[in-house]
Design a protein that fits this description.
The protein has 387 residues and is α+β, with helices and mostly antiparallel strands. It folds into 2 domains: 169 residues, no CATH class; 155 residues, no CATH class. It is 54% helix and 17% strand. Strands 2-3-8-5-7-6 form a 6-stranded mixed beta barrel. α2 runs antiparallel to α8, α2 crosses α10 and α2 packs antiparallel against α11.
């Protein structure tokens, strides 16, 4: 019975806190709007960053190889450093390697049927296995072995190829190219260029390059236990082997710490946090001052300090969670609408984005409640009735 009475008492305290909070609707709305706006900005900024990082690793994600061999100086897929052919032979001879194939990845300029020129990304697949090939939505993969054959990826940049059909032709460095199929991929590219797939030999034949032509070597290990041994052996010949996840992380670190992108996003996120903290903190402090007499009256009729403390914490948590939900919902809606109108819009909401915003909202709620707690706990009951 005591437990039941205690629960009812606490529910009554929280009900009073709720009524005090929502009684002044303009102040209540200002609190929620301030936090929602801050959450909206934080989630928006971090979502753009997450989307850019995802697209920066699009080639790694779309190819799907478990282990990538590359020059140690490589930072991203876009700035690959060609390797000599003997590296491929050396990798294939390592115990634990099921198979290893070369991959070409590079930029080119194609002349379309209208006469205009368009920059593209060309990916050259191993002829024997076509390992890393995309999923075709139209056409036959066997046609890639035909003369001048290319596969176009249907993504946000596809229209830049002037919406070709199967059989459409183009010129690449005075060589004739023919579209034999269309593919879909998991992730679109970052730099706004359409992607064409062809065979490795055709890619290095059509596109001028240095005497070394292998951009990456894709390795399939016999088992997960063999990956570490493969990495050690490749390190001995002066190159590195990275798992798919490791390569994606390396690309992410490059964009976060070695470009201005990460710094700019961080600054904008911190500014969003400060805006939310200043708006909610000031509004909550004003709310406490205006309701000081009511808190004093509660203390005069027997409310304990911990009960007043619970009221403040409840009010701060309630407004923070409402603002958080509205901010996330508004950001999600905006991103969804933007992607409908702008297919190449890169923002992507992830659990990490939501977690970062939630932690910052908790901090905002904590600081705001601390501002109010000091005022409420130190209230003397006689001050309420002094007038």
């Amino acid at each position: 019975m005591k437990v039941v009475r205690s629960v009812k008492a606490w529910l009554g305290i929280l009900r009073i806190a709720y009524k005090l909070l929502t009684n002044d609707r303009p102040k209540f709305a200002a609190l929620i709007v301030g936090i929602a706006f801050a959450v909206f900005l934080m989630v928006q900024m971090t979502s753009i960053f997450a989307g850019i990082l995802g697209r920066a690793s699009s080639t790694v994600t779309n190819i799907g190889a478990r282990v990538w061999v590359m020059d140690p100086a490589v930072k991203t897929v876009a700035n690959n450093i060609p390797m000599p052919d003997y590296v491929l032979d050396a990798v294939r001879s390592i115990d634990g390697v099921k198979f290893a194939v070369p991959l070409y990845s590079g930029g080119a300029l194609v002349r379309l049927q209208s006469g205009s020129y368009q920059a593209v990304t060309v990916v050259g697949l191993d002829e024997g296995s076509l390992y890393g090939r995309p999923e075709l939505v139209e056409g036959k993969i066997e046609d890639l072995y035909a003369e001048n054959a290319f596969i176009a990826v249907r993504d946000a940049e596809f229209s830049k190829l002037e919406k070709p059909q199967i059989g459409s032709e183009f010129e690449l460095n005075d060589h004739r190219g023919v579209i034999i199929g269309f593919a879909k991929v998991t992730s679109a590219g970052l730099f706004g260029t359409p992607t064409l797939y062809t065979t490795y030999k055709r890619a290095i034949q059509y596109i001028p390059s240095s005497r070394y032509t292998i951009s990456f070597i894709l390795v399939e290990p016999k088992s997960n236990a063999d990956i570490q041994y493969i990495q050690e052996q490749i390190r001995r010949i002066g190159y590195i082997a990275m798992t798919r996840e490791g390569f994606v992380s390396k690309i992410a670190r490059y964009y976060m710490f070695q470009t201005g992108l990460g710094t700019n996003i961080l600054i904008m996120t911190v500014v969003s946090f400060i805006v939310g903290l200043s708006i909610s903190g000031q509004t909550f402090y004003t709310f406490i001052l205006e309701n000081r007499e009511k808190f004093g009256a509660l203390k005069a009729i027997g409310a304990k300090g911990r009960e007043l403390l619970a009221m403040i914490l409840f009010q701060a948590a309630f407004t923070a969670m409402m603002g958080y939900g509205l901010g996330v919902g508004l950001c999600s809606l905006l991103i969804a609408l933007a992607k409908l109108r702008l297919p190449n819009y890169a923002a992507s909401i992830t659990y990490i984005n939501l977690g970062i915003a939630f932690i910052m909202v908790v901090i905002i709620a904590g600081i705001s409640s601390c501002i109010g707690i000091r005022k409420v706990v130190n209230i003397e009951p006689f001050e309420t009735f002094r007038g």
